[in-house]
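Quick log. Single chain, no ligands specified.
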Amino acid sequence: MLLWQAIILAIVQGLTEFLPVSSSAHLILIPWLSHGHIPDPGLAFDVALHLGTLIAVVLYFLREWVQLILCGLGFHYPQHAPEHQVMQNRRLFWYLVAGTIPGALVGFFFEHRIEEYLRDPVPIAIAMIAIALLMWYAEYAGRMDRHIEQTSLGDSLVIGTGQALALFPGVSRSGITISAGLFRGMTREAAARFSFLLATPLIAGAAAVEVPKLIKAHHAGALDLPMSTLAISVAVSAMVGYLVIAFFLQYLQTRTLKIFIYYRILFGIVVLLLAFLPLGFAR
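-> predicted structure:
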């Protein structure tokens, strides 16, 4: 893989990891659509790109995570914070822990099977359209009057179960978790913020498992990518991801998910047409 190809995929990962359009779908479908001009990055490079977006979400929410972890472990932090705020942070921390469990279990038992059997364009396109319709209904049915401070254990378990389904390419972690939050009456911005916080430990756990394998494969010569290309890709993915988080949270304060719904449906239809029409795209 050439450097420019790696950078394009890193930009795609940074753009699509936090927008509700499915990063896994784009990393699979863009090489397919390019007819080999951009190669399939493979699982190892995919791990490197996810490390970049992990860095992005950790840096963006670093202050919040410090407060949540310290409060969750029983400390009164910050010292000048009122007691009710400390208790809110403590509850939110343990709700995030509970919400992480469904995704961790599904990932542990089914991730490799999903990677092996569900990377075909047709099921990905169907998932793109199906989740777009779910997002549309969530926009229609959601009350959107609850803020992140009002999150309950039930919210975290419902949203966490949605996150578990995001392992299927085309679903979108942010798309399904934000939709779940809207169904629970959360505002768009609160649902997105909870979604990003909930994603952090799961991405971190996957990185902790896969990055040592990536380094070992590189040292063994089994990875046909220079370390400099990997480092640049991680940095680009992190920078783009950070900007997207900041943009998306601001965007959702005044805007709806409609543009992403339309995009998912259109992209899914185009992929289905290309897959079934005799134009050389079908595998």
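The chain has eleven helices and no strands.
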